[in-house]
Design a protein that fits this description.
There is one protein chain. This protein is 55% helix and 0% strand. The chain folds into four domains: 37 residues; 114 residues, no CATH class; 66 residues; 105 residues, no CATH class.
Length: 403
């Protein structure tokens, strides 16, 4: 079956377009049945026709009570523009434009200047160009100047063409090149994000390793899931809908080196909680590993020795400076070292790192507020003022003169 082809423009249609488009604009479609507005605009652009008719700027799709509800959902509940648009039956872009333009004056910003038809004046366009030159993100320009996303994109294209024609440097990337959800990604960046997803990593780890924002990684992941679904494939550890069923290996997993260290300490009759702290394992996980280890020994005909009561364990051999890691963040950082080092080597490296950090903090000059905080915490004491011996002779001479 041959592809559908748009019929050629007849000489009569071209004559109508050339005669009436400059005055009527897109309204000439009433005299050109069977021609869409897109086809008319494209043909007029190829013929170099310019429309002299000045129409009013388009109105937001959301207004009145719906707009107030949309603003409340955005500001109060943090809804995305896509979710707001789905609720009110408009596109994501329409919801974005309506909400941000309404929030411009409510946030205390001055909208860009417009004429009686709602179009930006020269002063308003100059303000938009200044914001583009400063490298602001598109959403920030919308909020500060009360313009649509399409206006920002169009002015960016026009300004870049003008700068290129004059031999000037191009505009800085939106957001100064910082990774955020609206930045345009290259093919290599998208391919890198997809490669990390295909390795079984989650969105947070992919964003950290690729330098792409989490929102952009989520969008790429959704498109990748749909593409793999058409091929009958899925992401590693996920089902066809993209929901993870098998957790990927991460720093939250307890390494075999930690398990071996915990088992050896249990055989030495060290209490479970103390052994868990020394091995940088959480208490619940340590008890679970203890039960599994006891079951293995029982299957082999052995018995796990009972732990010694508190106070009978020689604590000096286990309590060391800068050990164990405190809190989940330090535990996960320590497990990163276990990816390449043994447990003892990782422990030495961890303690050395903490000692260097403590030494650097001690040598860092403290502000007056920080010193007061240290005094309040009891880590620093106030000393009495020193005697100023060089003033003593003068003081004695004054006393002799008085006598």
């Amino acid at each position: 079956m041959s592809a559908h082809r748009i019929p050629r423009w007849t000489p009569a249609e071209l004559a109508i377009l050339q005669a009436q488009y400059p005055e009527m604009g897109i309204d000439v479609a009433a005299h050109l049945p069977g021609r869409s507005w897109h086809s008319i605009h494209v043909k007029a652009h190829k013929l170099g026709l310019k429309c002299r008719k000045v129409g009013d700027a388009p109105k937001p799709k959301l207004a009145g009570a719906e707009l107030e509800e949309a603003i409340g959902l955005r500001e109060g509940q943090g809804w995305s523009f896509a979710r707001i648009g789905a609720k009110f039956g408009v596109s994501e872009g329409s919801a974005n434009n309506a909400v941000l333009i309404a929030l411009c004056t409510r946030r205390g910003f001055t909208p860009a200047e417009r004429d009686q038809h709602g179009h930006l004046t020269e002063v308003g366009l100059e303000r938009v160009r200044y914001a583009l030159k400063k490298g602001l993100k598109g959403v920030d320009i919308q909020l500060r100047l009360g313009v649509s996303a399409g206006c920002v994109a169009e002015q960016r294209r026009r300004y870049n063409r003008d700068l290129l024609k004059r031999g000037k440097a191009m505009l800085p990337p939106p957001g100064g090149g910082e990774a955020y959800s609206g930045v345009k990604l290259g093919k290599s960046q998208k391919a890198e994000v997809e490669r990390l997803f295909l390795q079984g990593l989650g969105t947070a780890k992919v964003a950290a390793q690729s330098g792409v924002s989490k929102t952009s990684c989520t969008r790429i992941r959704n498109r990748l899931i749909k593409r793999l679904k058409r091929k009958g494939e899925t992401l590693p550890g996920c089902d066809a809908a993209g929901f993870r069923r098998v957790q990927a290996e991460s720093t939250r997993f307890i390494t075999e080196a930690q398990r071996d260290a915990l088992r050896s300490m249990l055989l030495e009759r060290i209490p479970v909680r103390r052994a868990a702290n020394i091995a940088a394992i959480g208490g619940s996980s340590a008890y679970r590993i203890r039960d599994e280890f006891a079951a293995e020994l029982a299957a082999a005909g052995k018995c796990l020795p009972p732990p010694l009561l508190p106070g009978r364990v020689p604590t000096n051999a286990f309590v060391q400076l800068h050990w164990p890691p405190a809190g989940p963040a330090e535990i996960y950082a320590f497990r990163e070292l276990l990816r390449e080092l043994t447990f003892e080597d990782a422990k030495v490296a961890w303690r050395r790192r903490k000692q260097e950090a403590a030494r650097a903090e001690a040598e860092r000059p403290k502000s007056f507020e920080e010193k007061l905080a240290l005094v309040a915490a009891g880590k620093m004491k106030l000393s009495t003022s020193m005697n100023r011996a060089h003033l003593e002779p003068q003081y004695r001479e004054e006393r002799r003169a008085q006598l």
